[in-house]
Design goal:
alpha+beta, four-stranded mixed β-sheet, four-stranded antiparallel β-sheet, binds flavin-adenine dinucleotide
Amino acid sequence: MNKLDAQRQKEIQQAEELLFTGPQALGFAKGLFQGHFVSDWVMPYPRIPAAQQGELDDTLTELRKFLDEHLDPAEIDRQADIPRSVIDGLGRVGVLGMTAPKEYGGRGFSQMANCKVLEEIGRRCASTSVFVNAHHSIGIRALLLFGTHEQNQKWLPKLVTGEQLGAFALTEKEAGSDAANVQMQARPSEDGSHFILNGEKRYITNAAIAHELTVMARTPVPGSDKTAVTAFLVTPDMPGFEMLEARMPKMGIRGTATGRFALRDVKVPKENILGPQGKGLKVALTVLDFGRTTFGACCTGAAKTCLELAVQHANTRKQFNKTLGNFHLVKKKIARIAADAYAMESMTTVTAAFIDRGLEDYMLETAMLKVFTTERLWECINDVFQIYGGSAYFVDLPLERMMRDARINQIGEGANEVLTSFIALVGMRGPGMEFKEIYDTMMKPSRDRMSKAWAAGKSRLGATIRVPDVPVQSDQLRDYARQLGHLIRRFNFAVNRALITYREPILDMQLVQERIANAAMDLFASTCVLSRLDGEIQFARRNGDAAAPDHSAANLFLRQSFRRIRGFLAGLTNNDDKSVLATADSCLAELRS
Ligand SMILES: Cc1cc2nc3c(=O)[nH]c(=O)nc-3n(C[C@H](O)[C@H](O)[C@H](O)COP(=O)(O)OP(=O)(O)OC[C@H]3O[C@@H](n4cnc5c(N)ncnc54)[C@H](O)[C@@H]3O)c2cc1C
């Protein structure tokens, strides 16, 4: 085995250990890759229970009032700071401990309800929503998920009120997208009472204002010469904690304090280890699952603002003696924003409900949500920017700020390229294992293998023949449901063909992976939209609403999404990949020489 192959094997083994622990119920996205429609997780469309809805409505009313009176996103951007009074106010409304249990002073909200709160903040100010996400969705989330009762009692009460703030510190110079490459070292002391941490972290939101940071560092694996990542609770008052740059000047979300810090022989008590020693990457990935869900909520809020702004301008600005809304190329943009905003909200709600309902494995869906909503929001902002023409360019309108703010979304919490590849590879693992079973049996037949290969073959063949049932309640949606079922079958067929054609090299074929991931994301998005639409139609019917609600945005989304899926699948066999790669290789080689 050459060095590259050995490295690849090591990476595969690490990923297997990290991502696939024991048998789990088949989730929705993994089901898609197997040709199934796991309807229980997505239908009927989830609703917040009536008892919680009242509390949520009260909170939203209070939050809106507070934000209307005290939040000035333009000033936050200009000053590159979120005033302490705003942070305190968010704390009073309960935003900074929304999902923490009541026994620690939190509000005990579900992830679905929390997403509604984040959507409201994301509508107005991306700096503030990223700050809240860094503190709550990823900062104290590690404690909520992995903290012992003692740790939670010690740390949470002040964090959930906002008296103290949290941060999540994974990124380093050598560990960006390659998160497993953390270099910060944590050496155990001789008496075993603490660890001594050394290294630097960069690009950490809230680093300079946080009182508690979840820091990832490498600890020795007992009985071997290996190291593994462990999560530590670190406080800035620990001797040796050095803030290198409290607020790195930056393009967007300028109100957030993004910092760089060093730990130099910082002694961290062993009681501050969060989760099992050596399982820090698991802690990080699980925490990011939650962060990506609220990311979706914030993007939904911002997309709704895009729609409001677009409609406002298109209805008032006149050119050629007509308001802009009369021009089809303007209408097209407004319609697309409306369709995407509807889909983003539906996907966020369904994904948050996975968490609330205790699905064990939703990492594919949260990755899909993150990539899909951040890419769509970027398009929405670009569209509304265009509708405003030259006026969008000036700082008296919020559009240039919204554009600067939105650009981080495609990079932070996992660059979209990395997540796209992840979605395709993790999704294809299930059918890939079945093909491997069949292939291994053909190469080396044995009685035991034959029966496993037979089961795998039956499963693959069955999924290729069967059109999965998409069980909608509303008659007028049956045609969409049928089309979706057929597209899932075609998707499964395309996945099978890619696996058979390319076999292991597919691990490096990101252009193929991208089409598969894009098709999967649109299948998931369409499912969420269809489920919500079905729910809304049924709700109106039960309540005897005579007027048919306007479902044009949802209908448009389904039509456009189905068309995109067909395009992605067709692109698997009809594309310019060779030419694309050859051109890039030629450019790369030219600059190297
Ligand atoms: C404003 C801001 C706030 C942040 N807050 C936090 C925080 O609170 N905590 C924290 O830990 N981190 C934080 N980060 C770090 C953020 O998560 C990283 O920037 C991100 O993970 C990307 O890492 P990188 O910047 O090192 O880019 P790199 O890893 O160098 O990647 C650069 C680009 O290369 C491409 N790329 C990389 N790998 C692949 C691949 N396998 N396949 C295809 N393309 C690839 C992608 O296009 C990617 O955008 C923050 C960053 C910013 C800018």
